[in-house]
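Dissemination and training. As part of the outreach component of the grant, students in the summer workshop were shown how a complex can be specified as a set of sequence lines and then modelled as a single object. The example used during the hands-on session is reproduced here so that future cohorts can follow it. Participants entered these lines:
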Amino acid sequence: MADAAAILEVRDAVKRFGGVTAVNGCSLSLAAGRIHGLIGPNGSGKTTLFNCITGLERLDAGEIRFKGRRIDGLRPHRVARRGIGRTFQIIRVFPQLTALENLLAVTEAPIEQARARAKELLEFVKLTRLKDEYAGNLSYGQQKLLEFIRVLMTDPELILLDEPAAGVNRTLLNDLLAAMARLRDEGKTILIVEHDMKVVMGLCETIYVLDYGEKIAEGPPSAIQGNERVIEAYFGR
Amino acid sequence: MRPAAIALPVLALVAVLPAVLSGYHVSFMIQVFMWIALAGSWNIISGFTGYVSFGHVAFFGIGTYTAALLITKAGWHWLPAGLAGCVPAMMLALVIGYPCLRLKGPYFAISMLGLNEVVRALVSYFEGFTGGGAGISLPPIEAIVPVYYAMAGVAFAVTLTTYLILNSRFGLRLLSIREDEIAAEAMGMNTARLKLYAFLLSAAFPGIVGGFYAWYASHVEPLSVFPLITTITMIIMCLFGGSGTVLGPVIGAVLLSVLQELVWARFLFVHQALFGALIVAVVLIMPRGILGILRQYYPLPRSI
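and obtained this result:
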């Protein structure tokens, strides 16, 4: 189980909210330098698991290790500084900051270096023209892209993306997918929650399927597509 | 540089004004500077991070007592005594900010309201030291022009500090907290520490203003230096001009002080009602203040 190349290990994670067990004994082991998918019906615990990994929620049981060190129980900014970045399912850009300010606010890098990186990233998602516009005035898709490049500003080793493709048009989506592949080639590890099966199946090397907070399947896309428990979870018996 | 082009003529004007103004108008200007400094201080914590402090007058009040005690009991000159007002103000901010800045939204506002009442009660209680409800009388002030310059200095220092913060990433991070604290935290910002730094800065200046005010007013007592209306006035001035901006609190403090002088003095009995109506109007019609409205039409830089 202790895979030498695993960058993130979640062991028997449990998270309860009152009487609801949102994550129920879930274990994942993410190989470094790959793109992983996390899927499951609504309410299956995907976002809660993200929140537990990034420190926004505290585990009730189990442990989480990043590069071998425990990170469960750390405050969110400490988890982030260890090298885990994330985006949110519901967009969380800073609306009254400009696009450029959104990027500059999150990095500790020297300001000239930060500006250069921000310029590069804005060009990459074609938002250069809008850099001085308030983030709140951008379209939904543009905000999604801004959130995506904002997490890249912190240069994380592990990137958690919560539904990155939702609401992004096809052309931009292709750019986004290319960007993820490029990040992987640079050695980053990515975990994506996504409902768009084309995105998940085309991009991810390993897919984890959650249902009612439990991991019901794990494997390459081909194995997941034919898995009976997965089909059952999505479409019912 | 443009900000300097605005600041230098204003500073020059402020420097020469006492030579041409009457004593009454110098007093009025002292009040204006006081409000600029107080509204600007409130802006540093509440305008930037969105944590609304309803107890900011506590720092002012602590400053007045510090200076009054240093002058009357330790024989200090009023200038260092006034400046020393920032020390207990910041200590209080540290003690109260550390736990309370973890509270969100209305809970923080209410805890700060409670803080002010606690401090006022304590000051009234320790009669032997603070003079209790009767307060402390200081030697009568001989010249107000030095106080004019001292108060102008604090107003300038607050505005300059605000400018420097807003042009730094520290400022962007404070604004990020206001915009979305969870996202800020998830992006690696130590939000608890950032808020505490902002709170300490925003408490220091009211402490100094209070220190100078004690000398200027020649008398301090719990009821006159811890009134809730002072906090509310800071808030309204800041919101009216535009919170989270450099010049918003300045514009708000100047306009409302002048308005108070021109209009409200003539409607003595309804001026509280007019003030209340203004609060409602500002919150309803222009929650982002004058600069907020201008910003919708013109792309103003952060440094304004």
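The CA atoms of residues 82 and 256 of chain B lie 26 Å apart. Students were then asked to discuss how this feature might be tested experimentally.
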